[in-house]
Amino acid sequence: METEVTQSSLFLSQNPTFDGRGAVIAVLDTGIDPGAPGMQTTTTGEVKLIELIDCSGSGDVDMSTTLEPSLMTVTTLSPSASDSSDETPPPKTIKTVKGLTGRTLVIPDSWPVPSSGKYRVGWKQASQGLFPREVLNQTGKKRKEDAEKANNTLLTQALTALSTHESLHPKLSQENPEHQPLLAARADLQTQIELLKDYIKDWKDPGLVFDVISFEETEGSGKWWVAVDVSCSGDLEKTVLLEPYSVGKKYASFGEDSKLNYGVNVLDSGDLVSIVVPSGSHGTHVAAIAAAHFPDASSPGANGVAPGAQLISLMIGDGRFGSGETSQSLVRAAIELARLKPDVVNISYGEYAGTYDYGRFTELIKDVVINENNTLFVSSAGNAGPILSSLSHPAGNSGVITVGAYVSKQMQQDMYAMLSTVRDGHFSFTSQGPTLDGAVGVDIYAPGAAITSVPEYTKDFNKLMNGTSMACPNAAGCVSLLVSALKQSDIKYTAYRVGNALRTTSKQFGDAFSVGLVQVVDAWEELKKGESLRQCLDVLYDINVQGLNRGRGIYLREVSETTTAHNLSISIKPVFSNTKNPATATHQLAFDAHVTLTPSESWITAPEFVRIPNGGRDFAVRVDPRELAPGLHYGYIKGVVDGVGECFRVPVTVCKTEKEGGKEGEEGVRRFTDLQFDSGVVRRRYLDVPLGANFATITIKSKQRLGNSLFMIQFGQLNQQTPVDEYDSRWRVQMSNTDSGVENDDFKWSKTIKVVQGKVAELLLCQNWSALDPTTISCEVEFHGLELTASSNPAASFLTRAGGDRISLTTGNSTFTRCDLTSRLRNESIAAVSVVLNGLLKTIRPTEASISIARRGRDVLPDGRQLFQLVLGYTFKVAEEGHVTPLYPNSLNGIYDSVFESVLFMIYDDKQALQSSHHAKVNKVKLKEGTYTARMQIVSPDILTLEKFKSTPLLVNFDLKKSITLTSYKTLAGAITGSGPTFDKTSLKRGEGATFWLSAAGSDDIPKHAQTGDVLTGKFKVTDSSSDSNIDLFTASYLVPPSEPKKDATPTDAATPILSKPEAEKKPEDEDVEQKLKEEERDLQIGYIKKLPAGEKRDALIAKLDEQWKTHVPFLVAKLEATVSDYEKLLKADGGEKGVTGAAVDALGKACDSVLDGSVIDLTALAVYLGLKVDLAAGGDAAKSKKKEMDAQKAAVVLALVWKARLAKNAILVSTEEKEKVETLFDEALVQLSQWLATTDGKYVNLWAWRLKYKGSTANALKVVNKFLGDSKNISTDGEKGAIYKELVSLKQTLVEALGWTVWQKYEEQWAFLKAPPSMVLF
């Protein structure tokens, strides 16, 4: 741990008790492992980790299910009895509850007894954000190894049995009837071997699913206990009963093999249990840097910077998103910070955002945590540098202490074992300011690497990590030393004052923005200044530059900004800490700062003096960048209070574009030669991207280099209110050895990127800090510009056609699109243009929209306002397996600058199984064919705002299995005929244009599941694929037109000419009306047959209908379905495992016979018809009517045959005599059924598999079932198809159990649970 360069080790040697004791550091990260080395106690013996909280929700368990225990008597072996003893084991009564996973949970006698007598149960899947990926991989590997061992034993048994069978029966003949049972037995053994091989080959880890149980010891007391069945056995003696961590400060582990430690919390009056598990190793490492304490360490260097400090773990890294933070986790962390009031906060996390001092999390931190609670908030700068404006939020926001990563010579020797050291300085990757609104960005630097503790599950005692993530806790530790000193010295302070002291006393080392390395001793001396000086130092000076790009500093970057002088008004207003405190009013009244203003550079002019009252003051400044040389220029206006020292700086950043470097006679080329580099050297070039440019090629050649060297190459442009990564490209490139001293292609690197015209770009080249020896390179940037416009609107003129980088190809009413392509900057090689459409975009409106209270207690803002949640539900179908991307409005996409407290999105299948989770970072998910439910949660304290989003549409993009290519033609005539000359590969001179016509998508090409109004999406192929400039410049969208009418369809009213006279309506004859009324009455009565329960009313209705309609097929089907219902009720009542008898069985048999006896349906004629190929179009209405009639007859026959076979199966079960006869009847029924129903149909498969099992061929039965279940077309939860699928899943489990394959029985049970969980998982 590097502590010398920051003076923290010197500070502790001078002040041993100022070691962080009395200070509390909250760490917002992936969570802290309470079992990790150094995380147990402070230097004074206090508990190190005082709170363990999951703010992400990834460990949440729904505990709303309440159960009373059941008593069960079991026999146990007496402790005094030996295995051979005849002593009868004593009976024992145990308490159990049925867990939601289906396991029986045995409650230990040692547990406290809840006064209510009730327990709460829930379930949690390890892979749904609970376990870190590393542990999932470890445990998954172990489970597969265990399965392989168990399967090996089963295979050995099966192979042995087969070998024995072959030895006992060496000569079996298919011709000998007596050999048939033996042959069947042998075949079943062979199938067992085949199935066991398939099981392990197709292994897919179901992971771990835990039962969770909780109870309140005394009702209403709030004293809760929680247990997680970590053994997944139901034996709760094997787990640890825990109190909430905040109460008991205890934790447990998911097992010695995983070493994954966890704590628990109980929320929402017991309805929610939070299992707190680290989502990664990052947070523990960060915490150890800040405050680890090793009481027995031989070297004091093992301790963290502030070993006396206590820690709070606020986990913002959501395991469902790869430990990324969400707006939900951040806001919940801010709520906890407001409640717990730590002294220091460390956040080594961050994401890009387009604005500063904005967003729910940022506002809560700025206004409540820092200002009201006086908490020092320390943030990492980010690791996206050294390009400018690369900070990741929350870095750079007002009041936040932003930390960059520093590397010293001592660190290079101790941690990196370098061949030779380089100069002290910042790590090359450190993100840089200024912020988009001109603030300097980074406040201080601190050592950005450490070797220290990581979670126990990594199986490592410590690990080297580097980054601003490591610099931040080093600085936070330094801050904690100062807080410890201030508290023990009884010196009052504000977070603003400490931050100012850190900045003004930092040690300069040559940073481009004059940001220095934190110095603890010097900062302490600054903070010890007298009480009289507090007036001007205890505030934050809020800087607001009026006019050009309003912000907290002056940032001139665009050409229009750097080629003119600026007279600007600057407002500076003191922000007082905790204005709710009455004592602050006295401070405000007395505030009067006499400030001397000193510009650091000659091109900045400011008044000599300004007097700032508590209401603030405006003053004018002048910035004249016109004569500045190309490159980066930084200056500032320093505000110094007489006798006190520096209290603020107004930063001024100017990025002046290059005037030199263009190729003679060529526009849009910048070339830089003989660029010299050494370790850590940065070269910046600012380029004016020409108007008309939309892509550029960067080429680098190495001229002189000994060995390999890592270079960082970045190219970025900025746009207001846009995250900087939107226009930022970056690469890490290994420059290889070149020693010719002459520029050539020995090492050449080239990339083509999209650019934004008219925006200044920064080209950054940096030799990594640890890359030794000098390098000489050249760099060329060549800008290109292609303009594409398109129009398919027949009424559009040239001036109204669409352009830009997103091209709309059709309005839905035109078949061909005219496109005009123009080269704006130089000669360009153009491809044989085409459009490839590979996505289908659908717009879906919500089917559910409900507003309710979010979690009580947990989701309440610091000002007492309860948060509400809007839950939107969407239903969509996936027609073909593939990748699906959900898209929602940009207004819901923020994280740090989100206007909502939370936005989460989840996709479930039709059995409630979670398929994917999403937040602001939308990602693709692969889905199988089927119906899905998507649910979106939006959280806010403002119900009226939520009301506005109730009808928010969801866009879903489906990747197409088969892309659609639109061909380009030189002429419209060629496009119409499809045989004209195509638009081939060509070249365009500067300013030259070309016109081509795109064909329409054929009706056969458009996916069947595409509907009118959907949009096909894809991209243009424009640039020559043989060049380096083969990038996607233009995206394409194609509106799906109305589908073509079928050839035999009747023309719609819309197709009828408006002036055509409608035919006179044919007047029906009276007898037709009478007949129609009779048929409608009949159909209504038939519909009631199934609705009525068995009894006199239903019998009377059937008898009445039978008089007149006994040959009507729907009537026969209705009678059959009614008797089926009666039979199924009888099965359900008696269990059905041994068959049933009674009137319902006989009635069902008669109903089947009435369909099959030939009196109504001529089976031979039906079979003949079904074997014919009927031309419906030629046959007209009569042919269609006939087909409808025959389809109905076939459905009735199949239904009757299925139930006839099921009755034959029932007869086998109830038969005590003449077994052979009833078995023959069952076989005959199956044969007859197979003539009308495909043997792959689930109804047939169910019966056939039962027959195989009954005959002793259990493995073959399982093989048949596996084949059906393995076909994605059979997966369903809807109607009869879903019921059959569910039956076969259950049958599969029964078959595996019958084979005695315990390992695979459990495997099937786990997957059955996961595929159809009892409830949807929580947001």
UniProtKB/TrEMBL annotation:
SUPFAM superfamilies: Subtilisin-like. Residues 825-1010 form the Tripeptidyl peptidase II second Ig-like domain. One of its GO terms (biological process) is proteolysis. The active site is at D29 (charge relay system), H282 (charge relay system), S469 (charge relay system). Residues 1042-1074 are annotated as: Disordered. One of its GO terms (cellular component) is cytosol. Residues 543-654 form the Tripeptidyl-peptidase II first Ig-like domain. InterPro entries: Peptidase_S8/S53_dom, Peptidase_S8/S53_dom_sf, Peptidase_S8_Ser-AS, Peptidase_S8_subtilisin-like, Peptidase_S8_subtilisin-rel, TPPII_C_sf, TPPII_Ig-like-1, TPPII_Ig-like-2. PROSITE patterns: SUBTILASE (PS51892), SUBTILASE_SER (PS00138). Gene3D superfamilies: 1.25.40.710, 2.60.40.3170, Peptidase S8/S53 domain. It catalyses: Release of an N-terminal tripeptide from a polypeptide. Its EC number is 3.4.14.10. Residues 20-508 form the Peptidase S8/S53 domain. This is tripeptidyl-peptidase II.
